[in-house]
TrEMBL record:
<comment type="similarity">
    <text>Belongs to the SbcD family.</text>
</comment>
<keyword id="KW-0235">DNA replication</keyword>
<dbReference type="InterPro" id="IPR004593">
    <property type="entry name" value="SbcD"/>
</dbReference>
<dbReference type="Pfam" id="PF12320">
    <property type="entry name" value="SbcD_C"/>
</dbReference>
<dbReference type="GO" id="GO:0004519">
    <property type="term" value="F:endonuclease activity"/>
</dbReference>
<keyword id="KW-0269">Exonuclease</keyword>
<dbReference type="InterPro" id="IPR029052">
    <property type="entry name" value="Metallo-depent_PP-like"/>
</dbReference>
<comment type="subunit">
    <text>Heterodimer of SbcC and SbcD.</text>
</comment>
<dbReference type="Pfam" id="PF00149">
    <property type="entry name" value="Metallophos"/>
</dbReference>
<comment type="function">
    <text>SbcCD cleaves DNA hairpin structures. These structures can inhibit DNA replication and are intermediates in certain DNA recombination reactions. The complex acts as a 3'-&gt;5' double strand exonuclease that can open hairpins. It also has a 5' single-strand endonuclease activity.</text>
</comment>
<keyword id="KW-0255">Endonuclease</keyword>
<keyword id="KW-0540">Nuclease</keyword>
<feature type="domain" description="Calcineurin-like phosphoesterase">
    <location>
        <begin position="1"/>
        <end position="245"/>
    </location>
</feature>
<dbReference type="InterPro" id="IPR026843">
    <property type="entry name" value="SbcD_C"/>
</dbReference>
<dbReference type="InterPro" id="IPR050535">
    <property type="entry name" value="DNA_Repair-Maintenance_Comp"/>
</dbReference>
<feature type="domain" description="Nuclease SbcCD subunit D C-terminal">
    <location>
        <begin position="295"/>
        <end position="379"/>
    </location>
</feature>
<protein>
    <recommendedName>
        <fullName>Nuclease SbcCD subunit D</fullName>
    </recommendedName>
</protein>
Length: 409
């Protein structure tokens, strides 16, 4: 049995205001061609089908056409990501046919999909949508959870406010299901998960997952499940969220981010986009990366106006460009002239060659402080004191409610 793993389609996204509809359409054509040529049985899409919780009509139509074509050829399994609205995307999941499966809710974690061919199970797929710690830590709580108030006999258990806690709880549910419903020899265990696993490298285009806790999760949390005396080894973690194609090292089993099929920031210029092909009939799953040709290449160019006028970068005329002009003095009519020479330029900067190193989006992300940290700094600056425990809890609850309301709006 052959399976394609893809993720982070982000249908409806733009790049510096430019529509990516045609770039997405080129990807869908390539994906359908691969499914047909490789005789693929199932397509796994690990979250962020859409770029917004409320997609535009154009985005919905494009998704409908793409999924119709894919389900004519293979079974399609979709989990939700942090950009999707789990409630909206999962509204009709119980009514969908067997060709299209959408898993959006934590209640479905221990309700796997068995991929069957020739009378036997070739792979069992467990689905982990994006698990927001605040909204799922009470849903997934088990005996390992903390007690809200140890002195209150009526207090309920709840998991810690972190991605590690909720994904570990999800892993325990999967392990319990595997213990109760063992697979026959030769069947593979695949876990789809939309999360930021430790060791993964982000780009400038992912939305931060951090809400009231550390966002990164050890990939090993999902690679060995079940009873302590005989844990089931997960054969493959089909990860989503990071847009750079990559494997997570030292995870105990293959953990793969196929990356977004379309580039969403100039930090992805030069990346080779791909989808990942698995073959359950080979010992190592025969993992192959099927390349995707970009509809329009991305170029980051640093140059002088003299070099640009002389045609030094003529080979970039058909590319989307981010251009940094390094002349000591800002050229007259800068943006207009750059775009007249490179017509698909989306961003223009002037950074003199002898100026201090500019602060990039990546620098901002690395030094970005959490809302709670900013609140604590505000209290020190304005009130000359530290927030107490009760005040920190109030701030944290407010921030999480605002983010939850924004995600569901």
């Amino acid at each position: 049995m052959k399976i394609i793993h893809t993720s982070d389609w982000h249908i409806g996204r733009t790049l510096h205001g430019a529509s990516l509809e045609e770039a997405h359409q080129a990807f869908f054509e390539a994906l359908v061609d691969y499914v047909r040529a490789e005789e693929v049985d199932a397509v796994l899409m690990s979250g962020d089908l859409f770029d917004r919780a409320v997609p535009s009509i154009t985005s919905l139509r494009q998704a409908r056409v793409a999924l119709t074509r894919l389900t004519d050829l293979a079974r399609v399994i979709i989990t939700t990501g942090n950009h999707d609205s789990a409630d909206r995307l999962g509204l009709t999941d119980r009514f969908l046919n067997d060709r299209l499966v959408v898993r959006a809710l934590p209640d479905d974690i221990d309700r796997p999909i068995d991929l069957v061919a020739e009378g036997r199970v070739h792979a069992r797929v467990y689905t982990l949508p994006y698990l927001d710690p605040e909204t799922t830590r009470r849903v997934l709580v088990d005996a390992t959870g903390d007690i809200a108030d140890p002195d209150d006999p009526d207090a309920v258990h709840q998991l810690a406010r972190s991605h590690e806690a909720v994904i570990a709880a999800a892993a325990r549910r999967i392990g319990a299901h595997l213990d109760a419903h063992p697979l026959e020899d030769g069947a593979r265990v695949i876990v789809m998960a939309h999360a930021f696993f430790t060791g993964g490298l982000p780009t400038e285009s992912e939305r931060c997952l951090e809400v009231g806790g550390v966002e990164q999760v050890s990939a090993g949390t999902l690679t060995r499940l079940g009873k302590a005396d005989g844990p089931v080894r997960v054969d493959y973690v089909a990860a989503g969220h990071l847009h750079r194609p990559q494997d997570v090292r030292d995870a105990g089993a293959p953990v793969r981010y196929p990356g977004s099929p379309v580039a969403f920031s100039f930090s992805e210029a030069g990346y080779e986009k791909s989808v990942t092909l698995l073959d359950t009939d080979t010992p190592d799953l025969g993992i192959r990366h099927l390349p995707l040709t970009p509809w329009r290449a991305l170029r980051r160019i640093a140059t002088t106006m003299e070099q640009l006028r002389a045609g030094r970068h003529e080979d970039a005329r058909d590319s989307w460009c981010e251009v940094t002009i390094t002349d000591d003095a800002r050229p007259h009519n800068l943006v207009h002239e750059v775009r007249s020479l490179l017509p698909h330029t989306l961003a223009v900067f002037h950074v003199p060659a002898h100026a201090p190193t500019p602060v990039t989006a990546a620098d901002i992300r690395r030094h970005q402080r959490s809302p709670l940290t900013l609140a604590q700094e505000f209290a020190r600056t304005v009130g000359n004191r530290e927030l107490n425990a009760a005040e920190r809890d109030v701030w944290r609850d407010v921030f999480e409610k605002v983010q939850a309301d924004h995600a569901n709006s």
